[in-house]
Design a protein that fits this description.
By secondary structure, this protein is of the alpha/beta class. It is 43% helix and 12% strand. It is built from 9 helices and 7 strands. The chain has a 7-stranded mixed sheet with strand order 3-2-1-4-5-7-6, with helices on both faces.
Length: 274
């Protein structure tokens, strides 16, 4: 950055340095974070990372912005409907932080492209906002095997109270059908430990709020609309895409913010320990 760019960056993100420390802000600028799934949770996670001066962001999703996304996704605006979500989100990020290197992967992440998309990319963290049990399970196992730091996010639909959101080891999460299925598959297919005290050493964002189920007629309408853009193998009512559940941006955004708070705290702790 030249002198004017450096001064502009300091004005935009000086509040980050005053909170996390100057070494942390510098580390955020060097960091490379992937957000997988740019929807009701992932779009807010990407926004928070951009506003925290993360230097390189890779956005991964194949969906387009739809009108049915409006109640919970930050890029769902007039003028964006029909655009790829990664493209719409990248436009926002470049306005927030012109110095951010935004990389777009307009594709669904799948086990057969983990290595090509994530391997060798120099990632410091992965935010998993995937709504497919199969893909989520495989991604977590792959990241653990590669020693790639990851935080996974549970289902955000059917909940009203963002104060019920928690972060804990994936093995200890409750009240989350999506993460429950993922946990079972990790144990069955990938040898993750069993037992009430056996931890996975994978952090997860979830809510302990009991799920609120919609009336059947409303659910049917929402599911029909969501099936247009959902990813292959999605989990229906337990998915992050909220198909079958109602959703509140107060909750979906808070899931994304909680995930990013975890990422920033980890990066800051590493930077300030040096």
């Amino acid at each position: 950055m030249d002198t004017s760019e450096s001064a502009d960056h300091a004005r935009r993100f000086g509040g980050i340095a005053r909170l996390y420390g100057a070494p942390a802000l510098a580390a955020f600028g060097r960091a490379h974070v992937a957000v997988i799934g740019i929807g009701g949770v992932g779009s807010w996670a990407a926004e928070a990372l951009a506003r925290s001066a993360i230097g390189t962001l890779t956005l991964i999703d194949l969906d387009n912005v739809a009108e049915s996304n409006t109640n919970r996704q930050i890029h769902a605006l007039d003028g964006n409907y029909g655009k790829p979500k990664v493209e719409a989100m990248a436009e926002r990020i470049r306005q927030i932080n012109p110095q951010c290197d935004v990389r777009l992967v307009e594709d669904f992440i799948e086990p057969d492209n983990f290595a090509s998309v994530l391997g060798g990319g120099g990632f410091d963290f992965v935010v998993d906002a995937i709504d497919s049990v199969r893909t989520k399970t495989a991604l977590i196992a792959w990241c653990v095997a590669q020693k790639l730091p990851l935080i996974t996010v549970g289902g955000a639909g059917g909940q009203l109270d963002p104060t019920r959101i928690r972060i804990d080891d994936l093995a200890l999460t409750i009240q989350d059908p999506l993460l429950s299925k993922v946990r079972a598959q990790l144990r069955k297919q990938h040898g993750f430990p069993r037992g009430p005290k056996a931890k996975f050493k994978v952090s997860a964002v979830y809510s302990d709020e009991p799920l609120i189920y919609p009336e059947a007629a409303v659910c049917d309408i929402d599911e029909e609309a969501e099936h247009v853009t959902t990813s292959p193998g999605h989990t229906g009512p337990v998915g992050l895409n909220c198909a079958g559940f109602g959703s509140s941006v107060c909750v979906t955004a808070s899931f994304g913010f909680a995930a990013v708070a975890h990422v920033l705290r980890a990066l800051a702790q590493q930077a300030n320990a040096k």
